[in-house]
Specification:
It contains four helices and five strands. It has 119 residues and is an alpha/beta fold. It has a five-stranded mixed β-sheet with strand order 1-2-3-4-5, sandwiched between helices.
Length: 119
């Protein structure tokens, strides 16, 4: 599931991903909130924290890829925090196709990730 973190403010959006993500998580939670944010802030700064993350259902994996492609130029910074090794691998694969800055932080460096994404 996706949870929006209380540190979110103005053009900074903090998201926690946990459990196994589903199509409903994208359709009903992430996409509406992110698209509403884009109307106010065309290039927000995003922190995505993986906490007890178990991956995606097959259909949600496709939704994730489509979301990433559709919004690849719609952020100025993206901090990925924690998660399995394939999260960082995917970030490195995806980064050349974006206009924003992307960094991965180990789970224990959450505060450093917040500092970076807010700067």
């Amino acid at each position: 599931m996706f949870e929006f973190l209380p540190e979110s403010k103005d053009d900074v959006l903090g998201i926690k991903a946990s459990g196994k993500l589903t199509v409903a998580d994208y359709r009903d939670v992430l996409i509406p909130r992110y698209e509403a944010l884009l109307k106010m802030h065309p290039r927000p700064r995003v922190l995505l924290q993986f906490d007890d993350f178990e991956g995606w259902s097959l259909a949600a994996g496709l939704d994730d890829a489509l979301f990433d492609i559709a919004h690849r130029k719609d952020f100025s910074k993206l901090a990925l925090v924690g998660g399995p090794a394939y999260v960082e691998w995917g970030m490195n694969l995806f980064a050349p196709f974006t206009d924003g800055e992307i960094r991965h932080f180990p789970a224990q460096k959450l505060e450093a990730a917040w500092e970076w994404v807010r700067a």
